Amino acid sequence: MPSLFSEPEYDLYLFVAGTSDKSRAAERNIRDICAQYLSGRYALEVTDVQQHPERALQEELLGLPCLIKKRPGLVRRLVGDLSDRPRVLKALGLLA
Q1: What is the pLDDT of residues 57-81, one digit of tens each?
Q2: Assessment of whether the complete model's pTM goes beyond 0.85
Q3: In sequence order, which residues have a C-beta less than 8 Å from that of residue 94 and are 6 or more positions away?
């Protein structure tokens, strides 16, 4: 019997630096993209590295804000406010 609580298809992690303009824009942009293209198929975890600096070290972040797609397919990292929608969609495998 199939589980009622299946795992999401997309595992996304957004790392931000407090409430900076870029951090807020990145979160808004990825939430908009997820709502439009991945409804019901994703899990998004947002981490403020000012509150959890160990996570930044753990993930070896090179810049902030940073989106990491861990599934499906290859791990992808995007740094910036995620306003370049075609670039984000391509990294997520939603645009050829």
Answers
A1: 999 998 999 999 999 999 999 999 9
A2: yes
A3: 37, 38
